[in-house]
Amino acid sequence: xxxxxxxxxxxxxxxxxxxxxxxxxxxxxxxxxxxxxxxxxxxxxxxxxxxxxxxxxxxxxxxxxxxxxxxxxxxxxxxxxxxxxxxxxxxxxxxxxxxxxxxxxxxxxxxxxxxxxxxxxxxxxxxxxxxxxxxxxxxxxxxxxxxxxxxxxxxxxxxxxxxxxxxxxxxxxxxxxxxxxxxxxxxxxxxxxxxxxxxxxxxxxxxxxxxxxxxxxxxxxxxxxxxxxxxxxxxxxxxxxxxxxxxxxxxxxxxxxxxxxxxxxxxxxxxxxxxxxxxxxxxxxxxxxxxxxxxxxxxxxxxxxxxxxxxxxxxxxxxxxxxxxxxxxxxxxxxxxxxxxxxxxxxxxxxxxxxxxxxx
Amino acid sequence: xxxxxxxxxxxxxxxxxxxxxxxxxxxxxxxxxxxxxxxxxxxxxxxxxxxxxxxxxxxxxxxxxxxxxxxxxxxxxxxxxxxxxxxxxxxxxxxxxxxxxxxxxxxxxxxxxxxxxxxxxxxxxxxxxxxxxxxxxxxxxxxxxxxxxxxxxxxxxxxxxxxxxxxxxxxxxxxxxxxxxxxxxxxxxxxxxxxxxxxxxxxxxxxxxxxxxxxxxxxxxxxxxxxxxxxxxxxxxxxxxxxxxxxxxxxxxxxxxxxxxxxxxxxxxxxxxxxxxxxxxxxxxxxxxxxxxxxxxxxxxxxxxxxxxxxxxxxxxxxxxxxxxxxxxxxxxxxxxxxxxxxxxxxxx
Lengths: 360, 349
Hints:
The structure holds 2 protein chains of 2 kinds.
Chain A: H1 4-29, H2 37-46, H3 50-55, H4 70-75, H5 86-89, H6 91-98, E1 108-113, E2 116-119, H7 129-139, E3 141-146, E4 155-160, E5 165-167, E6 170-172, H8 174-182, E7 186-191, H9 197-202, E8 210-216, E9 223-232, E10 248-252, E11 259-265, E12 271-274, H10 292-305, E13 311-319, E14 322-329, H11 335-338, H12 347-355
Antiparallel strand pairs in A: 1-2, 1-7, 3-4, 3-7, 4-5, 5-6, 8-9, 8-13, 9-10, 10-11, 11-12, 13-14
Chain B: H1 2-16, H2 24-33, H3 37-42, H4 57-62, H5 73-76, H6 78-85, E1 95-100, E2 103-106, H7 116-126, E3 128-133, E4 142-148, E5 151-154, E6 157-159, H8 161-170, E7 174-178, H9 184-189, E8 197-203, E9 210-219, E10 235-239, E11 246-252, E12 258-261, H10 279-292, E13 298-306, E14 309-316, H11 322-325, H12 334-342
Antiparallel strand pairs in B: 1-2, 1-7, 3-4, 3-7, 4-5, 5-6, 8-9, 8-13, 9-10, 10-11, 11-12, 13-14
């Protein structure tokens, strides 16, 4: 006989499964690039979304066995950090858990919920929507971040334009900004991080972050860096460093902290190599991340302290005095990581997924 | 819908757990009024002129779970609770390790514990430790480990070291935490359990400042297995919020009705009139914590007063009402009524 407990477990599993499939299908539908039906079918048969198929140029590869498939990522990896992934999914809880590490998180000023503003900072108590705009006038830039982001956080950069306000690069009046901010569901208001000079020189209009994927080795229990990729915004990314919306990315050499060749996505969906940033002309290839050994050490220390989260894609901004952690992703996107080459070519990375039973 | 079903199941399960004798008429009367049978007996609702100031179990089980939404998980999940409240210095008991099916993950930089044997070694040095289930929806699973020089006591039951090892390894996901050393006033009343105060804080809907709604001191007894559980034979006493002085003690009779006691039944130490040292500091410190987490407007904190300040054992997102209302109804305080009403949390009988 099936017990009610087993039934409810099965129902929950089916619910989660359905959510994962819906997420996969939604992302496939979002593909903006031209792809033939034959290509699309071939991508699916291989276990990839059509945009990954184009981005990784799988049709031009001899072997694809070292690529992490989208089917693994969407349908399996969500369980890697179970049952603690909520710490990474919910930005308020993330802030609450990680703020005990000194100088790690950007300051959180307030929690906003349908126009109610709950202060979260002793240094800058913000208690109303007008308080948010006053703070903006003093700080010049602030960030509004949705607390829930399952597969892509919802982030708006606010800028003070002396009277008017820019919301994600769009100029609106103060009144309109007030309405817009008050209408937000559940958001946290955080500091806009001032990045180090090396990153500002390449592109100054976004906080350019490094996606650092850490894994906890099953045998040693120690964290290691699987890959680090620097993202840079561009004129079309609305103050963000979003790669798929027109940004650039470059792999960071884990030994030296030097950036490799930059990559951006062409309108065809295929990657293009670039040596310099197209908007600023600043050189990407060969640029060095400020104090890379210190950055790596700090990120691995944090990962070790939270070893109950064995698989995290951290978003790290390097500043003049260390790092700031923007967020951690429980199921990091693999496009920005694998456009520089397959992840599973590293035996440590392959072993991580395999030992935890997460490879097809 | 899923949440609703869970709440009703919880309500029914607790009604079924009623161990006290009750007639069918009384039970039906209790339900009609919105209470569980055991609350009906404990609050002596059959002897009251008016019950309108009591928070009903109907409100508590079916509505109050939403008061801290969507963040009640921070209180439900003890690991998350630890992660979030750890940043307040000297507030939580030290957490040594996280256990999951025999695997031990060290969590403390002071005492590194990474195996079951390591736990028993630590126990030999510390004499007492606490194993706390990670999830507790409506009551946490807590085991007190004691070193008996070779053998081990698990919540008062003596077992061999080998059996203790097996028992610990088979525990579902748990945290291993320090056993808090309570202040002398509490040890004198009953020394064998960490006697805690259930302190209910609410965020005032108008000023958005937290206030202390009620504070009730619990004490263990010989039959509570090293815990200060009231419904399993312990004693509780309401604290005067202005002075920190304990009122008359109350325990549950086998009939399910309350009995007033002036002294602890096992130690004979006086309860009523005992004063909590540094009470104003206790309240101030707790309200500071509540203020730092305004996204949790309704918390039943379990606080142990020690010689150097308070220790927070846990926070309950939907605190039990027995221990609070056995001393009188909550809603006679207009601030408390206003809190529940502003959150739409009261069932109109």
